[in-house]
Amino acid sequence: MSAEYPNLPVNLLPDPSSPPWLNKGDNAWQLTAATLVGLQSVPGLVILYGSIVKKKWAVNSAFMALYAFAAVLVCWVGWGYRMSFGKEMIPFLGRPDISLDQKFLLDKAFLGWFPSATMIYFQSVFAAITLILIAGALLGRMNFHAWMLFVPLWLTFSYTITAYSIWCPTGWLSKKGIIDYSGGYVIHLSSGVAGFTAAFWVGPRANKDRERFPPNNILLMLAGAGLLWMGWSGFNGGDPYSVSVDASLAVLNTHVCTATSLLTWLFLDILFFGKPSVIGATQGMITGLVCITPAAGVVQGWAAIIMGIMSGSIPWYSMMVLHKKIWLLKQVDDTMAVFHTHAVAGTLGGVLTGFFAHPKLSRIFYLVDNWQHYIGLAYGLQSGRSTAGFKQMGIQILGVVFVVILNIFTTSVICLLVRFIVPLRLADDELQTGDDAIHGEEAYALWGDGEKESKHNSVYEEFPQVVPKGGAGQVEMA
């Protein structure tokens, strides 16, 4: 018996773990999608970063990604989620508050038919991957202690503003009707601009590293890239917040655009350089993923292919041609070219969304019957609603301008603030040595035959259960 239901036997009492509003299918998919996005970072980008750099930077690069993932999650439940999706404090930011109260976590989320705990987890992995993408511009020279300060500051004073403005229903750009299906603006344009700006303030790598920076393991790089690509099913497929037909369309469009972009980039490499580059194909994969993200569930399949052709060619041109001609691009050392793969591709995706967004698909995603919003220019011209189409294109461009200005300003202020506390850039001797000088650890250590005594032993080497017997021997690897 129950005090609330005194006349019902125990086997007929309502299940407190499944309130009437809970959709178990939606909740299961949302948790799965969140985990797929998390796997893009850990281990996806951890592996990709650790293998695409020189071997002396493998540990540091991978660890920058791993640290960011952990730090963001703690800050997110502490104050970041409520600043991004909570009650309005000002038109572009929510009130900071903790997100660990049991009643709040188990209540229905602000969107979708699942608890807030699921939404917080889902949104946390998006915030985390944004910081990890920024790290891509800073590999091979940023002081790790400076990075430890940069991550929570940038999350608090930049990411939350963009997320609230564009994704929160009460955000000012959200009210205007901007279309950012899954983070073309909030994640990719933001990380591309912030990464480039931070790279300017941190300064370049050592000259020797800038001149030659070969990957230490291309096959492992491809493994990380594969996790990134496949994880995008959750990245774009989870944003309808339901197991819907729109989620299915978003997943298919994502992979079609990405494959087209990769092939386009590969074709251009062969046409102009004579060789099919694996690294180039990976860059084309990334630009395709980024470009389709703001549009994934609101465009038709043929539009996704066109977007793939453009995302495989326009960022290719900006990286391979314009980068060598524009003074500012040549001055800033952007290790992973996040300006081209995320800022350029993210801008391209946002603008093309304003052109190709199908009004019927937009209504399915946004669950509104408003013909004045969410209509691409192409369909506005076709249906005689050109004013609405041009308005949507204007809103998309306004979003680009807002995100660019915000991230140049906030990232610059944060870098200058951190610089007052610790140096942004590693010392010259640390730049020459890399991982061993920074962490006392190296990525490639072989024990037994050919072992060589290390000058800097890891602090964990006294624990035999952690480090294999024989010490921290190492050999030089090609």
Automatic annotation (TrEMBL):
Q: How does it sit in the membrane?
A: Multi-pass membrane protein
Membrane-spanning parts: 28-50, 57-79, 120-139, 146-165, 185-203, 215-232, 252-274, 286-317, 337-357, 395-422
Q: Please list the residue ranges annotated as the Ammonium transporter AmtB-like domain.
A: 28-444
Recorded hits in PROSITE patterns, A to Z, give:
AMMONIUM_TRANSP (PS01219)
Specify whether Transport is a keyword of the entry.
Answer: yes
Could you name the domain of life of the organism this protein comes from?
Answer: Eukaryota
InterPro entries under this entry?
Answer: Ammonium/urea_transptr, Ammonium_transpt, Ammonium_transpt_CS, NH4_transpt_AmtB-like_dom, RhesusRHD
Provide this UniProt record's keywords sorted from A to Z. Answer: Ammonia transport, Membrane, Transmembrane, Transmembrane helix, Transport
State where the protein is found.
Cell membrane
Give one GO molecular function term: ammonium channel activity
Principal location class: membrane
Q: Which residues form a coiled coil?
A: none
**Could you confirm whether the keyword Ligase appears in this record?**
no
> For this UniProt entry, what's an example GO CC term?
plasma membrane
Q: Which Pfam families match?
A: Ammonium_transp (PF00909)
Q: Which family does it belong to?
A: Belongs to the ammonia transporter channel (TC 1.A.11.2) family.
NCBIfam families linked to this entry: amt
Q: What is this protein called?
A: Ammonium transporter
- Name the source organism: Turnera subulata
